[in-house]
Amino acid sequence: MKKTILFILLFVLFAIAFVFDMAGKDLNWQELLTVLSNGDTDSISSQIVQQIRLPKAITAILCGAGLSVAGLLMQTLFRNPLAGPYVLGISSGAGLGVAIAVMGATYLPVIANYGAISQVVAAAVGALAVLLIVLLISTRIHDTVSLLIIGMMLGSLTSALVNVLQTFSNPDALKVYIMWTMGSLSTVSMSQLQLMIPLMLVGFLLSILIVKPLNALLLGENYARSMGVNVTFIRTIIIITTCLLAGVSTAFTGPIAFIGITVPHIVRGIFRSSDHRIVLPGSLLTGATLMLVCDFVSCLPQYSFPINSMCALVGAPIIIWVIFKNKKIQN
């Protein structure tokens, strides 16, 4: 009963955050409801809400929920409270793809730069390439700790290649790439959401289907095997799901840090449980809500802050708290 009440409260907070993010700092609730109910596309307020605010809010929900679930999956797989959705090098692979498309176009004329859509395609290709490498390695290496180290090394390798490209890049291309690394929810249009939404829904569905094996993995791979879980198969599904959620989010919005690491800890603290039947849907709601709040706050000043900055301001203190808490338990 208590958990049901908590879920209801989370949903109410999510609805409030959604309304605030849609209204922004220049529309009141009454104007927002009028725009949404009338469907008038001629007024300036209606165009702002339907063409800018609504796509951005939907993107925030998808990214916040997707990164949170991906972070939860990684923390369960590696049994590491500080594991996040990017530990397998997905973000670095996407970054390398964008770096080649943006900064490599100067030296490789065959690479055509068509603006934002080319960045999305390049990031998706880069993330997919890292996914295939990780999957190939996972078929040969069955130790999760070794897989984690290899993922980190892949991330370091791709980051090094990006640094090489930055060294020889012209200032304009370098500025475009740096802006992409700051993350943005406002670059996703309604037409792009038609591709983003189905991909993210597939990732959410896969994560829901493996809830029971995830609970078994909480007590270690040996225990999971004793319960009849095909650990190799489930680990592959976890990797694919994580790469899908984190890769798609990064491709469309750029790398957004801290949400994937912090939200699972927030949810475990709220519900006092590690049961994925509770923590997973809780992470979906909390991640979406937190991203909406960060987006709303980042747009309050006269000049909008990068979404990555707001997520870091929220996430970094929680990570520090987790480290101190674990240290206290060990002592």
Reconstruct the topology from this structure:
Blueprint: H1 2-23, H2 29-38, H3 44-78, H4 90-102, H5 116-138, H6 144-168, H7 171-181, H8 190-209, H9 211-217, H10 221-226, H11 231-253, H12 259-271, H13 276-298, H14 307-330
Helix pairs in contact: 1-3, 1-13, 2-3, 3-8, 3-11, 3-12, 3-13, 4-5, 4-6, 4-7, 5-6, 5-11, 8-11, 12-13, 12-14, 13-14
Task: Return the domain count.
Answer: 1
The proportion of residues in beta strands is: under 5%
DSSP helical segment count: 14
Regarding quaternary structure, what we see is single chain
Order of helices and strands: HHHHHHHHHHHHHH
Mean pLDDT: 83
| Cα separation of the termini | 35 Å
What's the CATH topology label?
ABC transporter involved in vitamin B12 uptake, BtuC
Count of DSSP strands: 0
Class in CATH? Mainly Alpha
The computed structural class is mainly alpha
Pick out the low-confidence regions.
none
Q: Determine Rg (CA atoms, Å).
A: 20 Å
- Named CATH architecture: Orthogonal Bundle
Sheet of most strands? none
User: Any idea what the shape is?
Assistant: globular
Assign the CATH superfamily.
ABC transporter involved in vitamin B12 uptake, BtuC
State the helicity in percent bands: over 70%
Folded structure, characterized:
The protein has a single domain (2-330), classed as ABC transporter involved in vitamin B12 uptake, BtuC. It has helices spanning 2-23, 29-38, 44-78, 90-102, 116-138, 144-168, 171-181, 190-209, 211-217, 221-226, 231-253, 259-271, 276-298, 307-330. Helix 3 (44-78) packs antiparallel against helix 11 (231-253) and helix 13 (276-298) crosses helix 14 (307-330). Helices cover 77% and strands 0% of the residues. The chain has 331 residues and is mainly alpha-helical. It is built from 14 helices and no strands.
